[in-house]
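Lecture notes, continued. The same structure-token format from the folding unit now serves as the input rather than the output. Read the line below as a description of shape only.
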């Protein structure tokens, strides 16, 4: 390519103006030296020298700068590749961290129970991942990374997912182990509960069985006294509380409103504690079972002129039934006075609606009224209670002195001679201390007895009648 040098603008043949010519030549030479020549190759190979002007003119957008565009494209590709490499590097780091987390979880899992092989394998996995991270750091700092972004990203994703799966598997094993431990604890607690229930039942059976009445095995009719009656009464009241406890449990299972049931029996009663509601049901059972107790036949006949047995005959009845099993005795003697007594009292204590609510039907009632005897714990508890009331009646009429039942009326003043408070908590001590209170009988729980001149106290539930102090 050739460069064409510019020539002078004036012809040197002009002799007259030589000095002027020299000055102009020098001026143009200075101007030309201030410009730069740019060599552009045309498509036909001809070199053209273009003088670059000091003035800047806007370029036409339709004519792109090829060298600038190529340089920009290369610079952009480099940035995209560098970004992809960094993303792959970060993904690889996170995948390694996830692997370390999974290996550490395996290490913890192998501690309980202790597994030396699993601990060693988990420890080696942690060390291996730490080495890989250290090597990755070294290459990054020395700019020796040689990563294929797409392959590295894919492998990192696979590694991370595998580590997450291992972590989830360890978590599942840990939860399963916890569930097994809880199941074992639950089984142990169930066993302890069953042992406690069995122990309580054995104690309750001892209390409710005829064992306590064995003290009368060697007693003579001539030596009977009121203390014997009191002992049998205590045994009878224990059976009452056992039956009432079972009855309340059936009420709760049947979703009864115990407050409403208690208020139906004793309206207007205010209890110091919620647990005192049981006294109302004990009161109902005792009053029903002791109804007609003063009658020599326990009210089984409507004939007031029916023959009264001798005290010795009542004592023989007492001794015969004292050691007998109630259901067995009823089966063997279906027409006995005790069978009639049990049937009558059951129908009075256990209302048809109550039985239907407890058991969903009236099968027990139908079977009992037709001469059969249900084989249920509820009926067994009732017959044991009925047996003891019958024994109490027989022993009472075996006494050489007349036995009678008395009951305290509601709102009577408390008397320590005739009454016994079933719960000291019923007195609401805070209210009594803050105002003038008059202690009154709210209701009778267990009626009292008179044996000649001996008084057996009635058990009552007390509540204070609060009177505001008079201001002066």
């Amino acid at each position: 390519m050739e460069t064409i040098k510019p020539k002078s603008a004036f012809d040197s043949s002009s002799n007259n103006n030589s000095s002027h010519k020299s000055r102009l030549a020098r001026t143009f030479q200075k101007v030309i030296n201030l410009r730069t020549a740019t060599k552009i190759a045309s498509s036909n190979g001809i070199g053209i020298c273009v003088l670059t002007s000091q003035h800047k003119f806007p370029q036409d957008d339709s004519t792109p700068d090829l060298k600038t565009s190529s340089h920009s494209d290369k610079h952009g590709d480099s940035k995209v590749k560098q970004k992809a490499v960094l993303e792959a590097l970060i993904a690889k780091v996170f995948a390694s961290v996830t692997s370390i987390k999974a290996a550490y979880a395996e290490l913890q899992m192998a501690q309980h129970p202790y597994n030396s092989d699993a601990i060693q394998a988990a420890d080696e996995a942690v060390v291996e991942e730490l080495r890989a991270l250290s090597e990755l750091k070294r290459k990054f700092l020395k700019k020796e990374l040689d990563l294929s972004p797409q392959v590295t990203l894919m492998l990192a994703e696979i590694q991370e997912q595998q580590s997450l799966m291992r972590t989830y598997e360890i978590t599942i094993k840990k939860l399963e182990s916890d569930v097994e431990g809880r199941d074992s604890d639950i089984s142990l607690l169930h066993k302890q509960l069953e042992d406690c229930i069995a122990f309580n039942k054995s104690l309750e059976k001892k209390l409710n069985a005829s064992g306590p009445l064995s003290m009368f095995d060697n007693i003579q009719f001539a030596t009977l006294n009121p203390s014997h009656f009191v002992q049998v009464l205590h045994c009878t009241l224990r059976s009452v509380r056992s039956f009432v406890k079972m009855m309340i449990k059936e009420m709760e299972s049947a979703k009864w409103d115990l407050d409403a049931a208690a208020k139906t029996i004793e309206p207007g009663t205010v209890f110091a504690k919620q647990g005192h509601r049981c006294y109302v049901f004990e009161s109902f059972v005792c009053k029903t079972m002791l109804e007609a107790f003063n009658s020599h036949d326990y009210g089984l006949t409507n004939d007031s002129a029916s023959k009264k047995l001798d005290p010795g005959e009542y004592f023989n009845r007492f001794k015969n039934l004292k050691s007998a099993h109630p259901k067995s005795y009823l089966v063997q003697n279906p027409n006995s006075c005790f069978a009639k007594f049990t049937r009558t009292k059951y129908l009075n204590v256990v209302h048809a609606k109550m039985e239907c609510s407890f058991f969903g039907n009236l099968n027990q009632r139908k079977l009992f009224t037709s001469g059969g005897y249900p084989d249920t714990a509820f009926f067994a508890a009732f017959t044991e209670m009925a047996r003891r009331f019958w024994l109490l009646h027989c022993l009472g009429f075996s006494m050489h002195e007349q036995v009678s039942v008395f009951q305290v009326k509601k709102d009577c003043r408390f008397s320590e001679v005739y009454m016994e408070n079933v719960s000291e908590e019923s007195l609401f001590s805070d209210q009594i201390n803050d105002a003038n209170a008059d202690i009154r009988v709210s209701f009778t729980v267990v009626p009292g007895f008179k044996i000649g001149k001996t008084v057996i106290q009635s058990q009552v539930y007390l509540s204070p009648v609060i009177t505001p102090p008079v201001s002066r």
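Point for the exam: The longest helix spans residues 149-208.
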